[in-house]
Specification:
Helices cover 57% and strands 13% of the residues. Bound molecules: thymidine-5'-phosphate.
Length: 212
């Protein structure tokens, strides 16, 4: 029996990593084996590519190079981490996956959707998440949260925050649009509530999707 693949998506500071920890713990408490991972990253090689993507100045890469970096990291992540875990029956929860490329590099940086779709098909074939939770939050609030976090940890990982508020407003709409296009796969979660409220909404969505 293969595991299930769940992704969390959304803009900066929407609380994905906190919620992934809570969801992983809740599933483990039901006796499910869980692997929490992230993109860009999630395998040794992909973590190296992550540094190239998330550190440095906004203009460091043109948009198509950035897209290819995201998919190079993703190919390694799927081959070495996600695929083997699913085959072993482990449930995988990933902090971001391919929807982030359609939002950030596609809508945000202007790579045509069809270009990304073709790269996606070449790299992933028809591999896709079983469930995607889109955490939706006011952009200003999210950026404030993300910046406060960077003051205390991971200070260098702020390249995309420097793209400005308009860029991030476009991203919010892009994620909502992705959820509208794929209603069977995606659930939009209101991330403006307390940590407990958001965790509860996520658990409800996961429970319904997988009959837990
Ligand atoms: P994080 O801050 O959620 O850990 O994500 C790292 C950054 O990488 C975030 O600003 C979004 C960006 N990113 C892309 O631009 N394209 C992608 O395909 C992925 C997975 C992330």
């Amino acid at each position: 029996m293969t595991g299930r693949f769940i992704t969390l998506e959304g803009g900066e500071g929407t609380g994905k990593s906190t919620q992934i920890k809570r969801l992983a713990a809740a599933l483990q408490a039901k006796g499910i084996k869980v692997l929490a991972t992230r993109e860009p990253g999630g395998s040794p090689g992909a973590e190296q590519i992550r540094k190239l993507m998330v550190e440095g100045e906004p203009g460091r890469w043109d948009a198509i190079t950035e897209t290819l970096l995201a998919y190079a990291a993703r190919a390694d992540h799927v081959a070495r981490t996600i695929g083997p875990a699913l085959m072993a029956g482990t449930w995988v929860i990933s902090d971001r996956f391919n929807d982030s490329t359609f939002a950030y590099q596609g809508v945000g940086r202007g790579v045509p959707r069809e270009t990304i779709r073709r790269i996606d098909a070449a790299v992933l074939d028809d591999f896709a998440p079983d469930l995607t939770l889109v955490l939706d939050l006011d952009v200003k609030l999210g950026l404030e949260r993300a910046m406060a976090r960077h003051k205390t940890q991971a200070g260098a990982e702020n390249r995309f925050e420097k793209f400005g508020a308009d860029f991030h407003e476009k991203l919010r709409q892009a994620f909502l649009d992705i959820a509208r296009r794929s209603p069977d796969r995606c659930r939009v979660i209101d991330a403006s509530g307390t940590e407990e409220q958001v965790a509860e909404a996520i658990l409800t969505a996961v429970g319904r999707r997988f009959d837990l």
